[in-house]
Amino acid sequence: MSQPTVLERLEILADAAKYDASCASSGTSKRNSKGGKGIGSTEGMGICHAYAPDGRCISLLKILLTNHCVFDCHYCVNRKSSNVRRARFTPQEVVDLTLAFYRRNYIEGLFLSSGIVKSGDHTMEQLIEVARILREEHDFRGYIHLKTIPEADAELVARAGLYADRVSINVELPTVAGLTRLAPDKSAPRIEGAMTTIRSAIVESKDARKRFRNAPKFAPAGQSTQMIVGADAASDADIVGRAGALYDRFGLRRVYYSAFSPIPDASAVLPLQRPPLVREHRLYQSDWLIRFYGFTPAEVGQAADPGGMLPLDIDPKLAWALKFRDRFPVDVNRAPREALLRVPGLGVKAVNAIIAARRQRTLRLDDVARLTVSVVKLRPFIVTADWRPVLLTDRADLRPVVAPKAAQQLELFAA
């Protein structure tokens, strides 16, 4: 049987990588090849983005080194018992593909993960070799994100950060019980141990660079992780709480959420249907509230129903405000920044603009309306020089008044 060509293997391994959501290239240090030195850049100027068949805008070559795997995780399309086409690249082939794509201005960097072949150490060595060749032999200065293998030796995991801008380890599932049930080959303590190794190396690198200018950088874009949503019985409150703990313990740049998608030849322990995609969206909104709006995971959990699930028809910030109406209305001319950030419909930029503007004049409702998409959601929750909601905030039917209208699918040939 003939071996698949490079393009055929690229098709297989790029498709196999599509389930990993944590491939953003934000947060790294700036490097470029001006002056004729090196190749590549981490900056976005001049990058031509490619579009995946599902409409995603991508600018990273996102592939697996191989989709062969010795593990048998129930939710993974590449698990050992899965009946899928298998393929494998050598480290040099990945390097050649990355450089060829970059020279054609298709990508700004590389996102590389892999199934586990032979052992965690062997796989990690192969991933590191790709990054080493790019950096040392080709002076590649573009972005590299390596998915590290928690089962690998801690020294190998640490080496990955010397070549990669960002490293990440997936915690896979929100609860230890879910991981034990659906990924019996993986260990939560081992995953967290590897994340601790990376966290320590990042902190040590930053400290060293404060004292020694030429100290090597370690994963300047930090580390991230990903959780699968809907494959187990974890509630939204469980997921948000887990994400908050990960941010606190490991100093993560991002926690990504990936809605479970049914896979071919699925295990009987998996749900038959995927969760609604809007659930993944609500979790990202909750994550934003924790990272930028001053909410704690417990406060986000208060917006959920008794079963711990966030409402799908309204965003978690509005859900929280409707449950805690005693915190409103907020006077935009006097309230502190922390209180303004709790107002539904006001983003960080709008709050900053309000604080800057009110130093010069007293704000009216029209002034605030210019800073937001719709003032309808705002009116029950704010006080301005010419507006006070009176009994509007306490209306029993306030939710349908401020909730967005449900989107309707338009008919293509409607009259």
From TrEMBL:
Cofactor(s) listed in the protein's UniProt record: [4Fe-4S] cluster
Record's signal peptide: none
Pfam families, alphabetized: Radical_SAM
Domain Elp3/MiaA/NifB-like radical SAM core intervals: 59-286
SUPFAM superfamilies: Radical SAM enzymes, RuvA domain 2-like
InterPro entries linked to this entry: Aldolase_TIM, DNA_rSAM_put, Elp3/MiaA/NifB-like_rSAM, Endo/Exo/Phosphatase_dom_1, rSAM, rSAM_sf, RuvA_2-like
Alphabetized UniProt keyword annotations: Iron, Iron-sulfur, Metal-binding, S-adenosyl-L-methionine
Domain of life of the native organism: Bacteria
NCBIfam families: rSAM_link_UDG
UniProt-recorded name of the protein: DNA modification/repair radical SAM protein
Species this chain originates from: Novosphingobium cyanobacteriorum
Lineage, highest ranks first: Bacteria, Pseudomonadati, Pseudomonadota, Alphaproteobacteria, Sphingomonadales
